[in-house]
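Human: You know discrete backbone vocabularies at least as well as I do. Show me how you would write down a chain together with its backbone fold. No explanation is needed for now; the record alone will do.

Assistant:
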Amino acid sequence: MARTFSKTHETQHEVRRPSTSLPRVMTAPSDGMTVIEVVITLAILSILMTMGVMNFRPPAERLAANAVQSFIQQGRFDAIKTNRPVVISFDSQAGEFAMARMADSTTTGCASAGAPTRRLNLAEYRGVASQDTFSVLWLPTGQPRACPTGAAPLDISQGAAIVLTGSRTAMTVAVGAGGEVVVQ
């Protein structure tokens, strides 16, 4: 019986042996992405993101107008804080705003301002310039006065304004007779 069992076992073993005459089955490629595909995808996304960011950046004229508005308001706050008149003026040749304090609190002549304590250069904003003249005297009470004399109040209808021009548009920064500084 032992022999019969072993012959049967050998016969079964031979039947189960795979045939070498059948073609090999090819496995399907993996479903993942290759490194090159990932790099190309990231490159395309970075280019699209760069173009999108460039379109959402505010124009240089707007940035310059906001900076000028802040500079003029800072002159007002400086006049109130130091209890001295402060002159804000624009030099169109240099393309630069200057802030200068008076030597004492009684002087109100714009020409008698000291050396500039702060400056704002329009060259920092690409393509933005102005050919206007601009000069305002801030009193220690926070009220604006017209220059060059510094004694007369600003014209209520016009105030003082400067137009900043660039490649896209023009922005106006105006100081009203009540002391408000606005961008138009």
